[in-house]
Amino acid sequence: MFSAKRGFASVKLNRCFSTRPISIYPRSRPHPLPRLLTSASRNPASNLRFSTVSQWNQQAAAAPLSYSEAAGEEIQEQVQSPEPPSEVKGGVQRKDGPITLFSELAERGLVSQPVVDTIVRDMGIKTMTQVQSLTIEELLKGRDILAQARTGTGKTLAFLIPVLQNIINNDPNLLDPRIGSKTASSTDIRAIIISPTRELAEQIAVETGKVTRGTGVKVMTAVGGTSKREGLMRMRRHGCHILVGTPGRLKDLLSDPYSDVRAPNLKALVLDEADRLLDQGFAPEIREIQQLLPRRQDVDRQTLLFSATVPREVLQIVRATAKPDFKFVQTVQEGEQATHERVPQRFVTCNGLENQMPALVELCLQELKKQDTDKPFKAIVYFNSTTEVALASAILQQLKPSRDVPPSDYTFPRSTYIVEIHAKLSQDRRTRAADGFRRAQSAIMLSSDVTARGMDFPNVTHVIQVGVPTNDDQYVHRIGRTARGDKNGEAWLLLPRIEARDFRYKLSQFPLEADHSLQTATVNMKEEAQLPEHVAGILRAVGERTAAIPAHMKADVYRALLGTHQQLQDKAGLIKSMNDLTRYAWGMAEPPGLSMGTVVKLGLRGIPGLNIGIDRDNPTDVRPGFGRDRSAGGYGRGGGGGGGGYGSRSGQGSFRGSSSRDGGGYPSSGGFGSSRSSGRFDSSTSERYGGAKRYSRGFDREDPRSSERSAQRDSGY
Ligand SMILES: Nc1ncnc2c1ncn2[C@@H]1O[C@H](COP(=O)(O)OP(=O)(O)OP(=O)(O)O)[C@@H](O)[C@H]1O
Asked: Which of the four pLDDT bands, split at 50, 70 and 90, describes residue 216?
C-alpha cells in the first residue's frame, strides 16, 4: 500500500478485500420521456456542453442536432463554459459566474475552509480545470451528474470535493478529526466510490486520503487480492465514511451478513470510469451492489459518473435511471476524440510481427538517448495480452546491463527501471510494480490494460502501443496516461502490416501520423541483407535475449495472439505471419501445437500452416519435438535446428536471411518447411492429428470484455 514515506497520503488507508455488481438506479422520472429538443446557447468561446433533463422540456427549438437527439431521444442544452484564464489572471472573480478558483468555494461558503486549505495549501492546486468548474458546484447541490472530460483533467478531485463536503454538511461534526474518528463506523458508510481496477481504487483512496486530511472523515479501500478478514478488522476498528473499492469486493462485503459493512445513510455513489463499469463485464455486479444499498425512495443519495469516454448506450442507461435533475456535462466536443492536442500520435508499420520487438527496442533506445535530467524517458508499453507483456518484459529485462550483459549501444542504462504489470500477477506484485513505476524517474513499464484507465503515473513521456487496441475508447484511455495535467507526452503505435486494415477501421478518426524512423521495423527477416551496424546490433541483441526465453512462454504468446487477432478476416495471412514470428523471431523449428478444439473455436479449420494435434496443455501428448524440453533447447544461438531468432550471428553489420539450406546466420531456419516438418503444416495432415478436446488456454487478451472479466474472477479485479 502507499505510505507517506513514499510520498503519498499520510492518512493511513486500509485495503480490504473482493466481489458482485446495474439497472443502475431506480427509475425516477416519467417514462417514456417526451422527445425533447435541443437549444443552443453556446458561448462562442466555449466548446462545452451541459445538459439537464429538467430543462429539456423547456427547450423548444432549433439548433443543430445534439448527440442525444441524433440518437432519437432527449435533448441537451448547450451552456456557457467558464473562461478561467482571463478571469483568474486578473485575480478578479465574478461573484455570480462559474467558479474557477478553489479558494472561492470557501469564500462563497460552499466548501469548508479546512478542506479548501488542504487543496490550495497542501496540494498546491489553485485553479480549477474545466470539468471541475462545471461539476463541483452542481454536485454540491446533490444532483446526479455524468461527466465526460479528457484524461488527466482532474476528474477525481471533481467528484471527491463535493462528496466530502456533502458528507460534512450532513454531519458537521465530521470536520473535527477527534469527533469524526470517534463516531466512525463500518455500519454507517456515507459514500462508496467504485473503480474497475484495483490499482485505480488504491490511487483514488490515496487521493481521498489527501483531501480528507485534517477532517474526521475516514477512508477505507476494498479491493480483491487482499485479505478480506484483515480488511474487515481494520474497518470495524477504525470505522469508515468513504469506501473505495472494486465491484467484486464491494459486493462481497455488502452482501455478507456477518461483515458489518453497511450503508444505511449513503449520500453518494460514485462510478469512476463509468462506461467501463456499466458495460457487460461489470454491469451485473454494479446492479447487485445497488440492490444492496438503501432504496433511493427511502434514502436520498446522488450518483456521480465520470469518464473520458461516454458511449451513447451509457448515456442512455444513465438517463433512464437518474434523478430528474440529472446533468450530462461534456467537456469534449461532440464528434471530437478525447485525446489531448498535446499528444503527437505516430504509427509505425512493421513488416511482420517479428519486427515489433526490435522496433520497440529501437524506439526505447532512441528515446533514452534523447533523455536528460529534466525530462527522463518514462514509458508505458501496452500489449493486448498478458503473455505478450510477460515475454516483452523477459526480453527487455535482459537488455539491462548485468554481470552477464556488459553495457553496450544495445543495452538500456542501468538506471532505467523496467517492470511488468498485468492481471495475472499477484496483487502484491501489481501494487509494487505500480508504486515502483510511480516513483521511478526513467522507466519502462510493460503493461496490459490494467493500467489503461485512470492511473495517474507522474511524468509519463511516452505511451507505446504494440498492436491495435480493442477499440477506440481503449486507445483514448491508454494514451491518456501521458500528457496529464499540464505535462507533455507522445504516443506511438507499432503495428504489423496484417493489422493495417483493422487499424484503419478502428482508429481512423485519430490524428495518427506515419513514422518511418525505426529501421528495424522494415527489415525483411526472410531475406539476406546488408544492414547498418546499429540495426544489425539491435536485431542481434533482441535475438540473443529471445533465445533465452523458455519455449512454453512463446507458445503461450502464440496462442494469445491467435485469440487477440480473431477478428482478422485474412486467416491464412494471419497464420503465415504468426509462423514467420515463431520462425524468424523465436527461432522455432515449427509453430506451437494447437488442439483441434482450439482450431475450430478460432475459426481456423482448414487454414494451412497450423500445427494441429499437439497441445502442450495436453499431458498425454508426448510426441517428440514438442513441449518445453525440446523447444527450450531449440531456440537460440545457432543450434542446428533451433535458429537463434533475430540476427544472432549477424555481426559486422551483415545480416543474412534465413535459408533452410544453410541453417545458420540470421535467422536460422530450424527445419521450417524441411521434410521433417512438411506435412504438419497443411490442413489435411493437421486433421489427422485432430481430436484434442481441450480448449487451449492462452487467449488472454485483457480487453474490456473478456480478460477483465476473467481477471475479475481470478483476482477480484
Ligand atoms: N485543478 C487542477 N490543477 C492542476 N492539477 C490538477 C487539478 N486537478 C487535479 N490535478 C492533478 O491532475 C492529475 C490528473 O488528475 P486525475 O487523475 O483526477 O485525472 P482524470 O481526469 O481522472 O484522468 P483519467 O481520465 O485518466 O482518469 C492528478 O495528478 C491531479 O492531482
From this structure: very high
For a substitution probing ligand 1, which of 156, 307, 477 has the most ligand atoms within 8 Å of its CB? Answer: 156
What's the half-sphere exposure (Cβ side, CA atoms, 13 Å) at 713? 7
221 lines ligand 1 (CB under 6 A): no
Judged against a pLDDT cut of 90, whether residue 93 lies above it is answered with no
- C-beta of 156 in contact with ligand 1 (< 6 A): yes
- In a 13 Å sphere around the CA of 676, the CA atoms on its Cβ side amount to 10
Query: Ligand 1 centre from 234 Cα, in Å?
Result: 29
Backbone φ and ψ of 475, nearest 5°: -60, -45
Cell numbers for 332: 469534449
Residues β-bridged to residue 654 = 530
Angstrom CA distances, 346 to 206, 365, 379, stand at 34, 17, 15
Q: Which of 8, 448, 17 is nearest to 198 (CA)?
A: 17
In this structure, are residues 294 and 266 in contact, taking their beta carbons and an 8 Å threshold? yes
Task: Take atom 23 of ligand 1 and give the residue whose Cα is closest.
Answer: 152
pLDDT (tens digit per residue) in 367-385: 999 998 889 999 999 999 9
Neighbours of 505 (CB within 10 A): 11
- For the chain, state the CA radius of gyration: 27
Instruction: Ligand 1, residue 477: give the atom nearest the CA.
Output: 26
pTM of the model: 0.77
> Helix, strand or coil for residue 330?
strand
Q: What's the rounded Cα separation, in Å, for the pair 535 and 128? A: 48
Q: Looking up cell 451513447, which residue turns up? A: 312
User: What's the first-to-final CA gap in the chain, in angstroms?
Assistant: 16
Q: How confident is the model at residue 179 (pLDDT cuts 50, 70, 90)?
A: confident
- pLDDT one-digit tens code per residue, 130-158: 999 999 999 999 999 999 999 999 999 99
